[in-house]
Amino acid sequence: MSLEQEVSIHRKSIRTDGYPMSIGELSTMYRDGELELHPEFQRFFRWSPRQKSRLIESLLLGIPIPSVFVHQRADGVWDVVDGLQRMSAIFEVMGILKGGDGNVLPPLAMESTKYLPSLEGKTWGANEADVNGIGGTLQRVLKRAKLDVKIVLRESDADTKLELFQRLNTGGTPLSGQELRNCQILMVNPTTLERLKELANVDPFQNAIALSDRNFEEQYDLELVIRFITLRRRDPDATLGDLGPFLDDQIVNIAENDNYDWQKEQEVFRNTFTVITDSCEDNAFRRYNPERDRFAGGFSVSAFEVLALGLGYHFEDTAYTPPNLFEKAKSLWRDHNVIQNMRGRRSGERLKSTLEFGRTFLGS
After folding, report:
1. Chain Cα centroid distance, residue 150
2. Which of 115, 140, 168 is at the close of a domain?
3. Could you tell me the pLDDT band of residue 10, with boundaries at 50, 70 and 90?
4. In terms of domains, do 155 and 187 share one?
5. How many CB atoms lie within 10 A of CB 64?
6. Count of CB atoms within 10 A of residue 174's CB?
7. Radius of gyration of the chain (CA)
8. In degrees rounded to 5, what are phi and psi of residue 122?
9. Which residues of 189-225 are buried (b: 16+ CB within 10 A; e: fewer)?
């Protein structure tokens, strides 16, 4: 195939549109639920008040800012794919931004900027006469300011949309594999992401995993949920390859499957992590030190694969009676070298060993 043919084929795989839109139009769409900001696409609200104030300065002075990219869903709603920080800053200044709990946040009190030192302490203002606000004239200037909006249409190929999103996010803070995976799931079936979040928020699971703040920020807990539901019944001898692409493919297959048994998966998930927390609290996935007779250190993914996936495999059988998990967790480090032997091994090799061992180790 020639270079020109390759270009021709792949140019057809993504359909886009774009035009300037006023901030007033975009804010109305946001209020009406026609424009959505998703923390799953980018880490939410990471800009400082100074960065937000400088953005408002640029808009008031007519300084161009980069395009905003949105993905048009099947229902016509736009998801902001690139430009979340800009849009959330503008909506926060206007006093319409909703936080993670769905409640509207207070309007931002801005800071002094290079060209507009009088922005210090100013808010949007309760009305045009509010002495603490920017005033009606500047409100109208801001609402009439235009942003270039690029629309990735729903007819575009899903893989190409994800590739576009990955390229858009090469600047700034790199996204984790799970944050990019969230984007892919949302493009296929937003309900699947909501179900995964519900599982991630199950108290026994959160209490068991004892992740670092950074792990939570990068949504590693959500990745562990996906590992659980895609790996607990997997044949250890089946070719896996790199774990990241495997998880991407498997969760998209689940998202596309209208007959996937979420009720059963939720039951197995809850049973597994209830047993783990009841037996071990937050120690199951930490390293056990036999000399000190204590668990310590951070999260061990190999211990998770042995204990959580091993239990999950057996909980497929409703008659399964788990063994004393606290003693099993200690024995895993004291009497077996399966985890120590995993160091430096690729995920596919490691999982073949941990999945096989966990199912035997936790058999009734």
Report:
1. 23
2. 168
3. low
4. no
5. 10
6. 11
7. 25
8. -75, 145
9. bbebbebbeebbebebbbbbbbbeeebeebbbbbbbb
Beta strands in the chain (DSSP E): 16-22, 35-36, 68-72, 78-82, 146-152, 287-289, 294-296
Q: pLDDT-based confidence at 97, cuts 50/70/90?
A: very high
Please identify, among 168, 199, 214, the residue that sits at the C-terminal boundary of a domain: 168
My answer on whether 92 and 200 are in the same domain is no
CA distances from residue 85 to 19, 69, 142 in whole angstroms, order as listed: 20, 12, 17
100 and 209 part of one domain: no
Segments forming the whole domain that contains residue 344: 177-361
Provide the whole-model pTM: 0.70
> At 72, is the pLDDT very low, low, confident or very high (cuts 50, 70, 90)?
confident
How are strands ordered across the β-sheet holding 146-152?
16-22, 146-152, 68-72, 78-82, 35-36
Report residue 28's pLDDT band, with 50, 70 and 90 as the boundaries: very high
What letter represents residue 6's amino acid?
E
pLDDT, one tens digit per residue, over 160-218 is 556 666 666 544 455 678 877 887 787 778 899 889 999 999 999 999 998 988 888 78
Do residues 139 and 26 share a domain? yes
Residue 98 has pLDDT above 70, yes or no: yes
Examine the domain organization and report whether 84 and 66 are in the same domain. yes
Q: What angle do CA 42, 159, 215 make, to 5 degrees?
A: 35
Provide the domain count of the chain: 2
Confidence category of residue 312, pLDDT binned at 50, 70, 90: very high
Q: How far apart are CA 141 and CA 61, in angstroms?
A: 9
DSSP characters for 330-358? HHHHHT--TTGGGTT--HHHHHHHHHHHH
What secondary structure letter does DSSP report for 50?
H
Give the contacts of 22 (CB within 8 A, at least 6 positions apart).
Answer: 143, 144, 145, 146, 147
